[in-house]
Amino acid sequence: MTVVVLDLDGVLWRGDDAIAGSAEAVAALRDGGARVAFLTNNSSLRIADYLAKFARFGIAATADEVMTSAQAAVALLAETLAPGARVLACAGPGVVEALEESGFTAVDRGPAEAVVVGWHRTFDFDGLDRAAGAVRDGARFVATNADATYPGSDHVLPGAGAIVAAVATASGRIAEVAGKPHPPTASLVRHRVGDHGIMVGDRPSTDGAMAGALGWPFALVLSGIGGHDPSEPVPDPAPALVADDLAALVPDLLAAHVARP
Asked: Tens of pLDDT along 149-171?
């Protein structure tokens, strides 16, 4: 069964507003014979929070279908850090959850063996000071992702990359990046859904590059960053499939990649 991996922000919703037709589109993909999974660079929410948001918008989803950059970042740390290691989370509850589920000790100040930076709305000077200080003191510096912007409900917001850049500037160190399109997320996807699928997203530089890293086709929707942020123009040549939103994409997606004999 073909796996269709959907980005979340800009594909299913923008901020706290569902994109019109997204719930029906996910249902149509499943009804058309596709296996559906979800992959986000937004590390701020816990898995239960994502499931609640899916439910609020009428989208069927299970925990094992949801993959996040927080999970990828923690898997990267697990390559070198022992269980119980102190990790400073300059990030939202999703990173704290992923750290604790993997046996690390999540802290909000040093000393720490690693620092994980992700998107969160409560970032402030004190958080910058604590994170940069731990990195300067030798902590491993991992970013959940480096997206400069984030699709809000009515305008483009600063993304995790802006927070990561602040910590990098203050610490004099460059972060290792775990999220799309980097190898830790590619490994997460292959482990969870296998080697063959289709990547659907709104950001060519992450979703499109993720498809390339996986060797998968890329389908671009213009309901999020793509088409709204000048820093993310539609590539030339464009991906094989481009549509205004997921609902408009589904018929061609099913015909081109799912309903093949």
From this structure: 988 888 889 999 999 999 999 99
The pTM for the full model equals 0.95
Signed CA dihedral, 221, 73, 58, 193: sign only: positive
CATH superfamily to which 3-69+180-258 belongs = HAD superfamily/HAD-like (3.40.50.1000)
Confidence of residue 234 (pLDDT cuts 50, 70, 90): confident
* pLDDT higher than threshold 60 for residue 260: no
Pick among 3.40.50.1000, 3.30.1050.10, 2.30.30.100, 3.40.47.10: CATH of 70-177: 3.40.50.1000
Give the pLDDT confidence of 50-82 residue by residue, as tens digits: 999 999 999 999 999 999 999 999 999 999 999
Q: Which of 9, 147, 229, 245 is catalytic?
A: 9
Q: What is the dihedral of CA 95, 97, 102, 104, to 10 degrees?
A: 70
Same topology for domains 3-69+180-258 and 70-177, yes or no? yes
Structure tokens that stand for 175 in this block? 């972060």
In contact, 34 and 110? CB cutoff 8 Å = no
Q: Please, how many CA atoms are within 13 Å of residue 9, restricted to the half-sphere of its CB? A: 24
User: Is 195 among the catalytic positions?
Assistant: no
Q: How far is residue 175's CA from residue 85's CA, in Å, rounded to a whole number?
A: 19
Distance CA 65, CA 51 (A): 10
Q: Where are the alpha helices (DSSP H) in 117-220?
A: 125-136, 160-171, 183-193, 209-214
How many angstroms separate the most distant Cα atoms in the chain? 57
7 flagged as catalytic: yes
